[in-house]
Each structure stands twice: as structure tokens, then as C-alpha cells.
Design a protein that fits this description.
Elements (H helix, E strand, L loop, with lengths): L14 H7 L9 E7 L6 E3 L7 E3 L1 H13 L4 E6 L17 H12 L4 E6 L13 E2 L2 E2 L1 H18 L3 E4 L6 H11 L6 E8 L6 H7 L19 H13 L3 E5 L5 H10 L4 E5 L1 H12 L5 H14 L4 E4 L2 H10 L1
Helix pairs in contact: 2-3, 3-4, 4-5, 5-7, 7-8
The chain binds ligand PBG and zinc ion.
Length: 325
């Protein structure tokens, strides 16, 4: 493989040659599209920090899910903003809760669409923490009991995949056990296994009004300096029965995606979070970057790092670009 016998540029000469030797391809099949569901009807409120994304009431979220399905996107991930918040986040496991309603409504019109639902309490508690507090500290095991209730109520509504996102110890095992006890052994778990304490979640917290009233999430989300710990977390979740393990955020953590996908023999999801989307949108709006090319390059980079599934707010945009060819 030495110059001049080998000339790498030979295979880059034409578009056809480049197409033949491309190693990583992006497909609409890789995408999961997140949706934010709010109470009320006829609501389609733009989220300021996520241009092009909305807070939808159930029927509007259903329309958005149907449009995503029409673009060939296989899956949506639901987040709910409840009617009322309380100290434990009890609306999360209510039969008539916002996410439960959205699951039923979407499954009714698009049974083939894979419906995933985020399961955490920060959107549901009045203090904005991811579970039950005890002396100001997150009570891990008490929160697990509520998480178990929540995922069972999602399952009763017809969810395909539950996505516990609180980074509580033992959260996958608690979900698997409660789902199996209630005969939902076919409901899958996508674990937020390596979720970092990240400033990239800023716009999301505005969208769902879930910023903690005091303190932060560093006691349960991971320190951004760590990668071996991410592999450990993902391996634990696999052992507890996760069907998919996730790394989140994506762009600043491509090495983590690579490490986890090398070590864990499960499908790997990467969540391109709100801050990643907002940065691209803001720069594109100013004409500083070419949005089409940046979106494709970024999403392909996430796949190349080892992600099988990409959760992205750009899913419909990228699906349209892929369809255009
Ligand atoms: C917690 C949750 C968060 C995100 C998804 N699930 C935020 C957090 O931990 O504060 C972030 C998603 C994003 O930024 O796009 N339920
Ligand atoms: Zn949370």
C-alpha cells in the first residue's frame, strides 16, 4: 500500500466510485423522532429554542407521528408535559396521563409505527428532580417503584418500547421485572445507559419545563470525563435485561458510542440532543453553515461511531433529504 503503486485518490475520482466505496450509509430506518405532548386540544406551540419543533396536544402529536411515518421514519419517542406537577410526579403513571393518551391515539392510527415513551419524573415533579426526594436527595429505590408503575401503565396503553431515562441504579431490572409480572414480556426496554450530566439538554428543559428547582443532576447522570464508566453502565443494563442501550448526548460523545458498541452486544442508540440540534439550527439560520450538508455529515458521523439507532429532531428533515437522494 505504498505510493505510487497505490493511489487512494483513484477511487475518489468520480461520484460513482465514491458511492461504491462509502463505508457508512445513513438510512431513514435509523431514525427515531422525539415528540413533546401537552394537555389541551388544537395545541401546536413552537418551542423557541428548538426551531421547527413543537409542543403538541394529543391529536396534533398524532398527526405529526403520522407525517413522520409517511416519510418512512419507523419510530417516535414520546415526552409528556402533565396537567399538574406534584412532589412524586404521580401523573406519570396515571391511566389517563398525557403520554398514555398519546400512545393510544398514535397506535390507533398508525399501528405499524414503533412507539417509544420516555419514562422519568423530572417533567412530572414540582421540584424538577428525576424521582422522589428524601431529605433533599433523590431516593433511588423509592423512585424505582414509581418507575415500575409508570412503564406498566405505558405498556397497558400499548407502547412498544419504554425508555427509562433517569439513570437510577437498577432501573432496567425494575422495569423488566414489573413488565414481566404483568405479562408484558414483549414490551422492549431502551435504556438511557450512558446519559451524561450535560449542558446540551438546555433547550429540552425549556421545552418540557423540567429544569431542577435547585441543585443539578450530577448525582445520577454521568461525569463527562468518563468512558470506562459508560461501558460499565451499559453492561449492567444489558445484564438487567435492556434490549437497546443508549449513549446521550451524541456529538460530544462519539468515542463513548464506539466504546459501548465494541463492548456490548446489543443494538446501540445515540441521542442527538436538543443542544446539538439548536446549534445547527442557529448557525444555519445565520447562513454560517450549509444545513443540508452539516445534518447529513453529523448524522453519518454518529452512525460511523457505532450507533445503530439515532434519536434526532432532524429526523423528518433528514428523511426528506435521503428521499431526494
Ligand atoms: C429526562 C430527559 C432529558 C432529555 C431526555 N430525557 C433531560 C434531562 O435529563 O434533563 C434530554 C433530551 C434533549 O436534550 O434533547 N426525562
Ligand atoms: Zn429525569
Amino acid at each position: 500500500m505504498n505510493y505510487p503503486d497505490y493511489r487512494p485518490r483513484r477511487m475518489r475520482r468520480t461520484a460513482g466510485l465514491r458511492r461504491m466505496i462509502r463505508e457508512t450509509r445513513l438510512s431513514v430506518d435509523d431514525f427515531v423522532y422525539p415528540l413533546f405532548v401537552v394537555p389541551g386540544s388544537g395545541v401546536e406551540k413552537p418551542i423557541g429554542s428548538l426551531p421547527g419543533q413543537f409542543n403538541f396536544s394529543v391529536e396534533k402529536a398524532t398527526d405529526a407521528a403520522a407525517r413522520a411515518a409517511d416519510l418512512g421514519i419507523p419510530s417516535v419517542l414520546l415526552f409528556g408535559i402533565p396537567e399538574r406537577k406534584d412532589a412524586v410526579g404521580s401523573e406519570a403513571w396515571k391511566e389517563s396521563g398525557i403520554v398514555q393518551k398519546a400512545i393510544r391515539s398514535i397506535k390507533k392510527v398508525r399501528p405499524e409505527l414503533v412507539v417509544m415513551a420516555d419514562a422519568c419524573f423530572c417533567e412530572y415533579t414540582d421540584h424538577g428532580h428525576c424521582g422522589v426526594l428524601h431529605d433533599g436527595e433523590l431516593d433511588n429505590d423509592a423512585s424505582l417503584e414509581n418507575l415500575a408503575r409508570t412503564v406498566v401503565s405505558y405498556a397497558k396503553a400499548g407502547v412498544d418500547v419504554v425508555a427509562p431515562s433517569g439513570m437510577l441504579d437498577g432501573f432496567v431490572g425494575a422495569c423488566r421485572e414489573s413488565l414481566d409480572e404483568e405479562s408484558f414480556d414483549q414490551v422492549a426496554i431502551m435504556a438511557y445507559s450512558a446519559k451524561y450530566a450535560s449542558a446540551y439538554y438546555g433547550p429540552f428543559r425549556e421545552a418540557v419545563d423540567s429544569a431542577p428547582q435547585s441543585g443539578d443532576r450530577r448525582g445520577h447522570q454521568m461525569d463527562y470525563g468518563n468512558v470506562a464508566e459508560a461501558v460499565r453502565e451499559a453492561a449492567m443494563d444489558a445484564a438487567e435485561g435492556a434490549d437497546v442501550v443508549m449513549v446521550k448526548p451524541a456529538l460530544a460523545y462519539l468515542d463513548v458510542i464506539r466504546a459501548v458498541s465494541d463492548e456490548v452486544n446489543l443494538p446501540i442508540a445515540a441521542y442527538a440532543v436538543s443542544g446539538e440540534y439548536a446549534m445547527i439550527e442557529a448557525a444555519a439560520e445565520r447562513g454560517w453553515i450549509d444545513k443540508e450538508r452539516i445534518v447529513m455529515e453529523t448524522l453519518t458521523g454518529i452512525r460511523r461511531a457505532g450507533a445503530d439507532i439515532i434519536i434526532t429532531y432532524h429526523a423528518p428533515y433528514a428523511a426528506k433529504l435521503l428521499a431526494k437522494g
